[in-house]
Amino acid sequence: MTETRATREEQVLERIDRARRRRARVREEHITMAHGAGGKASQTLIEAVFLDAFRNPLLEPLEDGAVFGAGGARLAFTTDSYVVSPLFFPGGDIGDLAVNGTVNDLSVCGARPLYLSAGFVLEEGFPVEDLRRISASMARAAAAAGVSIVTGDTKVVQRGKADGCYVTTAGVGLLERDAALGVAHARPGDAVLVSGPVGEHGVTIMLARGELDIEADLVSDTAPLNGLVAALLDAAGGAVRCLRDATRGGVATILNEIARASGVAVVVEEDAVPVRPAVRGACELLGIDPLYVACEGRMVAVVAGEAADAALAALRGHPLGAGAAIVGRVRDDPPGLVLLKTAFGGTRIIDVLVGDPLPRIC
Amino acid sequence: MRFVDEYRDADTARALAARIAGLCEPGRTYKFMEVCGGHTHTIYKHGLEDYLPEAITLVHGPGCPVCVIPMGRVDDAIHIAGQPDVIMTSFGDMMRVPGGHGSFFDSSAEGADIRMVYSPLDALKIARLNPDRRVVFMAIGFETTAPSTAMTILRAAAEGVRNFSVFCNHVTIIPAIKAILDSPDLRLDGFIGPGHVSTIIGCRPYEFIARGYGKPLVVAGFEPLDILQSIYMLLLQLAEGRSEVENQYARVVPWAGNVKALRAVNEVMELRPYFEWRGLGFISHSALRVRDEYAAYDAERLFDIPGNRVADPKACQCGEVLKGVLKPWECKVFGTACTPETPIGTCMVSSEGACAAYYNFGRFSRQRVREATR
Ligand code: SF4
Q1: Does the ipTM exceed 0.85?
Q2: pTM for this structure?
Q3: Whose CA is closest to B346, among B116, B62, B69, B35?
Q4: For ligand 1, what atom is nearest to the CA of residue B332?
Q5: Residues A61, A147 contacting (CB under 8 angstroms)
Q6: What is the spatial distance between Cα B258 and Cα B263, in angstroms, rounded to a whole number?
Q7: Inter-chain contact A30–B122, Cβ cutoff 8 Å?
Q8: What residues line ligand 1, using a CB cutoff of 6 Å?
Q9: Is the pLDDT at B255 greater than 50, yes or no?
């Protein structure tokens, strides 16, 4: 009997897999918060509305930025909007978040970030002093990353039509190496690395809202990754298959994108994932998994197995990668799944998040 | 977080698993029900089934507070939330629970002011900050959460907060267990008793299970080793021919429960004659309502709720899953029409629901994974 039950279960699993591969469709009539949470609903919205409308070969891979040739050079181009609440939080504010976010999206394309734009949507009544603070921190972040903010835009909306200040940045970068990076490039045998402890930004923001009676000594991890990426590519160049910065949806979401796009399985060792005790403690209390919590200065790297140690050494040699670790391996079966070997010694799936326990973290 | 790691040690787990395997009589199969959704979650989250011999099947019981809320009650809550001056507050888990006409999420997208809170006290705080609005707390849960709802009502009364009320959906675990024991289609060998509920009600209320039905019950904690150990204790009882109530979670659960919390619940709430449970139907004396003395804090009386009964969707087999007759994947719509994004049944919504736990954590062939990762 167990025999037939197991085969039946297997059949059901295959049916589910087929259902999951079906074309994305937005069933809701209205946008819900889940559409912005970086999980399945966001993915569906992007594929069913935006990709459907804008479809072209540069957009289609849905990477962090588009890479294209222009006038003999290879460029990367990206954009991102920031609606974080609160605007100021331990370790940063919406300003450096907006600069670092775009710098990082360009960096993980393998590009050297050059120029950024900055667009502001301001709510009537917003303190000019706060805007000065935000701009100053943007200037500092840009200087630290070696980029210039060269164009911008400002709009003001009536009181109540926005929440203080929203920032949108776009950026261009130059590809100077011919590393071919992409979520679809992972191969069985590759190693999966993270560049440092995960989840600090998301948990910091959540605690900074003051809605939870938890106190922890935490600051956001927001930081520009271009230096770290350069160090990694210098050391392991051709062996690097894919880089992604683990923002909304956290490391878990990135790994799912990689498993799905590359048609591979990713097996993560829970024990190997670096998580600071304060983050772990807060997540434990809130019943969330740090693997899903956003970072703003951490990346996931997939590198060929034989280059794993060199890649790890290169990351750890950089101040932003001191806490880097090899957290898992790429395998061929079962394709499209991310599996976690739990610290307890069992196995489970890490799926894409459905809802979002942490609204407006970036 | 040392106190957590202690209960997640893989070496201890392996040793315990060996003893569990040693206690299984050859040729015999065992079915244990973990009553509480928190246990279901732990089992899947840590991959605990990897440690169990094939002879042991864990059946996921009805103890997930979100899963047992019938659709009609969700509609009632959405109706309240739709009143112009209302702020509805609720635990995050409730947001996606489908009623007959969508979920909190949908009604929030259509303009209702619905806010997630972590405790009823947060809802009371919102009421204090918004004196010109009526703030309603959607109260769900077993005996575990009923005391905090009761104490919040007491606090609101003491402070004279007039714009706060509770839509009470608290349920009690014992009648549900009894309904399962009386259901003919299920043969269980024992129960893993709910740890959190027992911190409040203690262990005594379970004695009828051991005495009257001859089934052992072990109240268990929520770390994976707690559950493994409680399975070991159940097997030991069976091997020795005993059927008793034992307390594996004595570090937290007092045998007599929490008298103070029970008193608060008693002060504010009373048993309803009957209440509908999703998938299980009407169970008598299985839920709590606000007493007359606290009518001013009872949303059910303050608002004119439709109170319509909505039949569960035809395709939905939540009842069978809640009773443990079907494994989640045996439901016909599991994973295809019913997924965490588009739940048909409630078991697919909460992270403590059996279907969601299996879909999110366990949806893979153990056989294949074992081969692939060897
Ligand atoms: S798959 Fe959906 S409908 Fe079927 S039992 Fe589970 S929750 Fe209910």
Answers
A1: no
A2: 0.83
A3: B69
A4: 4
A5: no
A6: 9
A7: no
A8: B 316-318, 321, 328, 331, 333-334, 338, 344-345, 347-348, 355
A9: yes
